[in-house]
Hints:
- Helices cover 74% and strands 1% of the residues.
- By secondary structure, the protein is mainly alpha-helical.
- The chain has a single domain (2-351), classed as ABC transporter involved in vitamin B12 uptake, BtuC (Orthogonal Bundle), CATH 1.10.3470.
- It has a two-stranded antiparallel sheet with strand order 1-2.
- Helix 5 packs antiparallel against helix 6 (92-117), helix 6 packs antiparallel against helix 12 and helix 15 crosses helix 18 (343-351).
- It is globular.
Amino acid sequence: MITRLLSHDLPRSRWLALALLLILVGLAFAPFLFPGSKALGTAAKILVFILLVASYDLLLGYTGIVSFAHTMFFGIGAYGVAIASTRLGEGWGAVAIGVLLALLLSFVLALVIGLFSLRVKAIFYAMITLAVASAFQSLASQLSVVTGGEDGLSFRAPEWLSPSFEPFDEPLFGIDIDGKLFSYYLLFVVVLAMFLLLLRIVNSPFGRVLQAIRENDFRAEAIGYRVVVYRTLSNVLAALFATIAGALLALWLRYTGPDTTLSFEIMLDILLIVVIGGMGSLYGAVIGSALFVLAQNYLQALLRMGAGVFDGIPVLAQLVSPDRWLLWLGLLFVLSVYHFPTGVVGRLRASRPGR
């Protein structure tokens, strides 16, 4: 049953299977295991990034396409929900319309970019997507009447997802059952379903062709596969999944702005997570997202604890200062890339083949 659910793409490593199981259990029971708004927000961000990074790995890891426009589709999903909710009012109907229109816009843009740009060489395609993403970000910042400009859009989510919604008077296992909890489990169920669907796609005959194109596009073309068609389909699928991730983030935050979805920093984070987790394996998106988001949210707190221990020692106290958290985060990433050139997943699978 599990083998079929995972599309016969098993972890192939006991340590990797254990890590994936721990992350799955941790995310499934995060509201009960890690109480507090920060912990729940961190778990929700991990879920969103798992879907976002997995969709990008479909492009980079499985098809060999370097695109810098992925956050554009992420932003389209978020803005679709926000604009529909502010114009049509709160409710599931507004959310559904916003998601559908966002998916339609992402489909058209990804199709156009794919058909007109994927015929050029990789570096030129990367530059084209960077230019398109930058133009879209500027457009979102300037169309303040529609997008809220730099301030973004705040909106009211459907009643069941509102923090003020409390259907029960008594808490369950010490946790208040409210709209925030429903929002979290909406993210969890959708991300889990989308991740399993992505697993099915990359392990289908279509996914095998994408990997053949990644390895040698000239040979794939020679044996009869239309490389441009497959690359365009991969681009469209990745864009649609990124759009869903953006919509989920908007529903969680009940806010959308250029900095939350369209910033180039998010694109760099996606690239880092793909490299750390391991390209060409969707499990790398799970491992990489969990490691990255946890480090991003809790490294500063750990350094604050360390600063108290080394207080009074001039050099060490400065090195472990909470203000140096970006330095340590960068150092951790450099070390992880150096010691895990094929990513954490690749290293774990190579160390225990066939297990």
